[in-house]
Structure formats: structure tokens, C-alpha cells
Write a structure and sequence with these properties.
Layout: E1 2-3, H1 8-12, H2 39-42, H3 50-58, H4 67-72, E2 77-83, H5 95-105, E3 111-117, E4 125-130, H6 133-137, H7 153-158, E5 163-168, H8 170-179, E6 187-192, H9 201-211, E7 218-223, E8 228-233, E9 238-242, H10 248-251, H11 257-260, E10 272-275, E11 284-288, H12 291-298, E12 304-307, E13 311-312, H13 316-327, H14 334-347, E14 350-351, H15 352-373, H16 378-381, H17 384-390
Parallel strand pairs: 3-5, 5-6, 6-10
Antiparallel strand pairs: 1-4, 2-11, 2-12, 3-4, 7-8, 8-9, 10-11, 13-14
Bound molecules: flavin-adenine dinucleotide (FAD).
Flavin-adenine dinucleotide binds at residues 90-97, 114-115, 125, 139-145, 147, 149, 167-169, 193-196, 198, 222, 274-277, 284-285.
């Protein structure tokens, strides 16, 4: 296994000196390597080029007239899925880890770029190139923090790897796709997860301390489809906090500026995407974007149950109401938040409509963030599909 301790080089440098995206840097790791030379082209926050890269990766860009394409990106198929025998300690049922293990075990790839954690801190990301299933499994579960996955890029050429799987989130994959042809690989597979509202390690601490009753024992959390954040604690207990009870006024600055400016929630450029938000509660959500994705998915088909995705409810009013509420940092008292959680769980959006609810809420918030903080970037930085999604809502003028 080859591992990198995060930001070791960056720390020795003057702040910002190797971060051309400045405060919008998502710390994807590219700038910790000599591939920094490509940053102006590759960085998702300097040069938004999703449509062009979709065409290269998938043979076509998304069709904005097709609602599912517009929201979720190019795909051949999507479904709800879960492992028949979930992997203990995985974020969900461990479909991501299982695919990566199969690819190594079957010799389809020689290494897997994934994220373990440091010995001292379960949430401090440590990108590695895993060479065995054990090393892949040691990377299971989200590290809900910005992770410099691409800091391992130099080692790919040095270790003479020719067939590689990279697991990562949208901003990492966008930069990877741009430098892909420089890596000397014969075959690259990309397994993506959706990603939103990521934080620095310090930001995560603030989030946990503000939201959980026992921040030090949280081993894993997720913003679930039942409109609650589920915190899993060391003793196995689950603490549920309704979204509407989050202390928005205290949490407004917690998310990284890169994530407040991101419009690639669904990881448009991965071959295969494994998330949860387009599936019903308890299920994972799989999107096969291209033939490589199909090949990867086929490796675990016998290990999982699948069912078609559904779409129920109407998100639009809830999204429109949340825009001024978020802006003003409105926080409901806990009893009201719980009540609202129960009601919205019964009548609120489900399946793909829940995913659209989440995308709409984040894209409108992020559009306003870019407009207010980086107005000069607004037009080029916001992809056309996101402009179309945002245009369904009334936003404040300023
Ligand atoms: C920061 C983050 C935010 C997410 N937000 C959403 C969301 O809003 N909606 C949604 O549908 N899905 C989201 N996901 C995906 C979802 O939480 C699960 O990761 C996914 O369903 C896979 O579950 P699993 O059990 O198959 O994964 P596991 O088998 O547990 O594997 C998890 C994999 O994630 C990788 N990983 C962990 N942390 C990071 C990181 N910081 N950066 C890059 N890779 C990482 C690891 O290398 C590991 O291989 C998010 C994922 C991350 C990392």
C-alpha cells in the first residue's frame, strides 16, 4: 500500500502559494503534485468544463430536455440496491468497497485509490493506493471531510501502475479526468459517490459539537432520506436530528467555500456512481453512466438485491420556502422541527423526487453564494444544467 499524509507538502508552503483556486480550493490534492501545472485547466473551481468532459468520458453530454439527464447526468440505467450481506462498518451496505475488492481480486486493476483514516483520528482522511482487499476494506466508510485524494497521482507513474480504479467525489474526479491522459495508464476506472456540504476537519468538529449530543463518540453520520441526520455512535446507538432543527445560524459558515460553489453533486464524470439519495430509505442508489460502469456493476450483481427507483411527491414548494429560511438562518425549536420531520416524511418527496429536492436546495443556495461572493465567476462557473434547475425558483435580487 502506498499512503500519503495529507497536506504534508502544502503545510511547508506559504498559505495560498500552491492553491490557485484560493479560498475556493477543495483540497483535492492535485496541487500537492507536479500535475499542478494543469491546475488552470483541471480545477473544478477555476475552469468548469463538465459538458466537455462528459463527452470525453461517456461519448455524449447530458440532454437538458430530459429531466433525469438534466438532474442526474448521463446514464444508461439507475436502480436502488443493497448488499444481501452488508459489510460491517461501511457507510451504507458497502457496495463501493465490494466493487473495488472484486476488481483487485479478479486482476482487473492493480491498485485502487481510496481514503483510509489516520491512526489518531477516524475522520482525518489519508488517501492511499490500495493493492489488496484488506486495504480497500480499511478505507470503507465516509471521511466527511475534504480529502486530497489526488495527492497520490505522482505515485501512479512512479509505481508503473497500468490499470487503476479511482474512488472519489466530483471535484476530485473532474480534475482527474483532465489529467487522465498524462498518467501513463492503459485503463482507468472511476467509481464515484455523490457529495455535498463537505467540511474541513475543524468544520466537522464544529458541526458535530453543534448538532450531536455526544460529538466525541460519533463514528459515522448521514443526511438521510427521512429528513433527519442519523449519527451512529461507538456503542451502536443511532441519534436522529431533524434537518429542520439544525442550528442553521451557527452552521452557515461551516461548509467549505468550494462546496458552497459546487454544482457537481452527482459526480457527473464517474463511470459508475453509488449514493443513496435517489433511492428509498434504507436503499443505495446506483447510476451506471457508461460501459465501464456496466462492467464494474456486473461484478457485484450476484451480491446485491435491486429494485427500480421510484419518484413520489412534489418538492417545489418546500425548496422555494427553504430559500429565504436558509438565508435568514431560521432555526425551529426542536419540538416543531420533530413534528415537521414526521409530517414531511409521510407526505414529502421520495426516491428521485427526494434527490431533486436535495439538488434544488443546494443549487439555489450555491448559486446565491457564487453570485454574492464571486459575481465575476457566476456565468462561466455555473453549468447550463444548473442554471436551468435554479431558474425554476424565485431568488432574492441580492
Ligand atoms: C463527503 C461525502 C458526502 C456524500 N454526500 C452524499 C449525498 O449527499 N447524497 C448521496 O446520495 N450520497 C452521498 N455520499 C455517498 C454515500 O454517503 C456513500 O458513500 C455511498 O452510498 C457509498 O456507500 P458504501 O457503503 O457503498 O461505501 P463504503 O463501502 O463504505 O466505501 C466508502 C468509500 O468512500 C471513499 N471516501 C470516504 N471518504 C471520502 C472523501 N472524503 N472523499 C472521497 N472519497 C471518500 C472511501 O475511499 C471508500 O472507498 C457522500 C459521500 C461522501 C464521501
Amino acid at each position: 500500500m502506498t499512503s500519503i499524509h495529507p497536506h504534508s507538502k502544502a503545510k511547508a508552503l506559504k498559505p495560498g502559494s500552491r492553491r490557485p483556486a484560493k479560498e475556493l480550493c477543495s483540497e483535492c490534492g492535485l496541487c500537492d503534485t507536479y500535475y499542478i501545472h494543469y491546475v488552470k485547466e483541471a480545477c473544478a473551481f477555476i475552469n468548469q468544463q463538465i459538458a466537455e468532459l462528459e463527452t470525453i468520458a461517456h461519448g455524449k453530454s447530458r440532454n437538458l430536455e430530459d429531466e433525469n439527464d438534466c438532474y442526474f447526468g448521463v446514464h444508461q440505467e439507475m436502480m436502488a440496491a443493497r448488499k444481501k450481506e452488508p459489510i460491517e462498518g461501511a457507510q451504507w451496505t458497502g457496495i463501493v468497497s465490494s466493487i473495488a475488492c472484486e476488481m483487485l481480486d479478479k486482476g482487473i486493476v492493480e491498485g485502487v485509490v481510496c481514503v483510509q483514516n489516520t491512526k489518531e483520528d477516524r475522520f482525518q482522511p489519508m488517501p492511499v493506493i490500495a493493492r489488496t482487499s484488506e486495504e480497500v476494506l480499511a478505507a470503507r466508510v465516509n471521511k466527511p471531510t475534504l480529502s486530497p485524494n489526488l495527492s497520490i497521482l505522482e505515485q501512479i507513474k512512479e509505481s508503473n501502475l497500468k490499470r487503476l480504479l479511482v474512488i472519489g467525489v466530483g471535484c476530485q474526479i473532474q480534475a482527474l479526468r483532465t489529467v487522465e491522459k498524462e498518467l501513463g495508464l492503459k485503463k482507468l476506472y472511476v467509481l464515484g459517490t455523490p457529495c455535498v456540504d463537505n467540511v474541513t476537519r475543524e468544520g466537522l468538529q464544529k458541526f458535530l459539537e453543534t448538532t450531536s449530543q455526544s460529538p466525541d463518540t460519533v463514528v459515522h453520520y448521514e443526511f438521510m432520506q427521512d429528513f433527519r441526520v442519523h449519527f451512529k455512535h461507538e456503542d451502536g446507538s443511532i441519534e436522529k436530528v431533524p434537518f429542520f432543527g439544525l442550528k442553521t445560524n451557527k452552521l452557515k459558515d461551516v461548509f467549505a467555500p468550494s462546496c458552497m460553489s459546487c454544482f457537481d453533486y452527482v459526480n457527473s464524470l464517474a463511470d459508475l456512481v453509488v449514493g443513496y439519495m435517489g433511492a428509498e430509505f434504507g436503499w443505495q442508489w446506483i447510476m451506471v453512466r457508461n460501459d465501464k460502469g456496466k462492467e464494474m456493476f456486473a461484478l457485484v450483481e450476484d451480491q446485491i438485491n435491486t429494485k427500480p427507483v421510484i419518484s413520489q411527491g412534489d418538492r417545489k414548494q418546500a425548496v422555494q420556502q427553504s430559500i429565504p429560511a436558509y438565508d435568514k438562518g431560521v432555526t425551529l425549536p426542536m419540538w416543531a422541527a420533530k413534528l415537521m420531520g414526521v409530517v414531511i416524511e409521510r407526505v414529502g418527496p421520495k426516491g428521485l423526487e427526494y434527490a431533486r429536492f436535495s439538488i434544488d436546495s443546494h443549487f439555489t443556495r450555491n448559486y446565491l453564494y457564487v453570485k454574492r461572493n464571486h459575481p465575476e465567476k457566476l456565468d462561466n462557473h455555473v453549468p447550463n444544467y444548473a442554471k436551468k434547475i435554479v431558474s425554476q425558483y424565485q431568488l432574492p435580487d441580492k
